[in-house]
Amino acid sequence: MARTLDPARHAARRRHIQDSAAALFAEHGYDRTTTAQICRAAGISPGNLYHYFASKKQVFVAVLTDDDAETADLLEHLLRSDRPLEALTEFVDHLAAPAAAHPAVPKLVLEALLQAHRDPEIAVVLEEADAAERDGMAALVRRAVDAGEARADLDPADTAAWLSTLVGAVYLDGALQEDGDTSVRLGQLRHTVRAYLTA
Amino acid sequence: MARTLDPARHAARRRHIQDSAAALFAEHGYDRTTTAQICRAAGISPGNLYHYFASKKQVFVAVLTDDDAETADLLEHLLRSDRPLEALTEFVDHLAAPAAAHPAVPKLVLEALLQAHRDPEIAVVLEEADAAERDGMAALVRRAVDAGEARADLDPADTAAWLSTLVGAVYLDGALQEDGDTSVRLGQLRHTVRAYLTA
DNA sequence: GTCTATACGGAGATAGAC
DNA sequence: GTCTATCTCCGTATAGAC
After folding, report:
1. Does residue A50 sit at the B interface (CB-CB below 8 Å)?
2. 3-state secondary structure chain B
3. Banded pLDDT at A131 (limits 50, 70, 90)
């Protein structure tokens, strides 16, 4: 990486490339997205990308690690709630919401999941985020059970895994629907989660 | 395609290549599986594959359309059941079961789903199977509602779509878990479906 | 029908002028 | 820092001997 005279400009340009690449990865998948396409979409010459990223894969990693921190903040806040069941529902909502926000998001996420079990580096990136989410959910489940707001026979870890899977289902749905009425799924998810935790 | 002297042998060999390819597609994905790998796995020389399939993509299509008919048979049978809710549960079970049968199955299915919205030919193949499943489920939901075994406020089509998504969740889970305790998910799915339909 | 050898194109990454 | 040009490898598919 060459010395950069204006770090802010460098970062902005890097971010611009990253965003351009994200859309392409979502649309065509990682393997079928070429560096030439990324450069064209970002409005730079082919090859210039390598002044900002060491490889095509690093571009993908940058896209995936984009918003890791904010979920942790919310979780920390919700763990202090005195209404654990509601907090859990809100957390699930928060995790599922991006799937409905933009059609490209669920496609990108699924693409990442599939790449993960072929590429260890990507697997590590995703597992870190996933482990944090599941641990947080398990803690929220435990609190809900202890407060008598959820079934007593729920195993926190198993339940967290299942809730995580249900959230994944919404992403899956979003990736498959060409039109974008995925917001319906959010309501169904909420109802499903409530019913499973209490029925 | 050259004339074949022994059609039965030809079909068997074609099937052998198809099975070898399925395992590779599941493990490495479609794009990263090379025709050379398929030939090596099938024990034939590179290039000989093209005596059995017109292209790499046709191999993939053959893998995906492998077991289309049997689900239709079961569905037809279940639509005549006089216990609609149980029939619906059994159909969902049937759809989800393969995900737990072998670790490669869910990976292969997800791979297909992602390829589908990049390749129209694959999209058509999957949509045909999917439409049949959803229509069947919607009919089963309607019968369950009419029989008073399920909530009256359920919209058959929306509910079928959601159940289909929940089944997808099990595949998603199976594709992500490296170890194979996916059978737990089948029980959770059953409980989830019951609770959603009746609670 | 099956093999070996290879044509052909495309993709990631680099070289070096400006 | 950005460009153009290109190197190099690899994958699909084909040609043609046996």
Report:
1. no
2. CCCCCCHHHHHHHHHHHHHHHHHHHHHHCCCCCCHHHHHHHHCCCCCHHHHCCCCHHHHHHHHHCCCCHHHHHHHHHHCCCCCHHHHHHHHHHHHHHHHHHCCHHHHHHHHHHHHHCCCHHHHHHHHHHHHHHHHHHHHHHHHHHHCCCCCCCCCHHHHHHHHHHHHHHHHHHHHHCCCCCCHHHHHHHHHHHHHHHHC
3. very high
For an interface test with A, give the residue of B117, B141, B198 to mutate (most A CBs within 10 A).
B117
Chain B: closest CA distance from residue A76 (Å): 26
Is the pLDDT at B65 greater than 90? The verdict is no
Nucleotides of D under 7 A from a protein CB: 1-6, 10-16
Domain around A114: 67-198
B71-111 residue pLDDT tens: 999 999 999 999 999 999 999 999 999 999 999 999 999 99
Identify the band that residue A69 occupies on the pLDDT scale cut at 50, 70 and 90.
Answer: confident
Residue among A118, A165, A191 with most chain B CBs within 10 A, to mutate = A165
Question: How many CB pairs below 8 A link A and B?
Answer: 96
Closest chain B residue by Cα to residue A187: B162
On whether both A43 and A77 belong to a single domain, the answer is no
Q: Among partner residues A29, A161, A184, which is closest to B158 by beta-carbon distance? A: A184
Note whether A118 contacts B29, CB cutoff 8 Å.
yes
Whether residue A50 sits in one domain with residue A82 = no
Asked which of B63, B78, B110 is the last residue of a domain, the reply is: B63
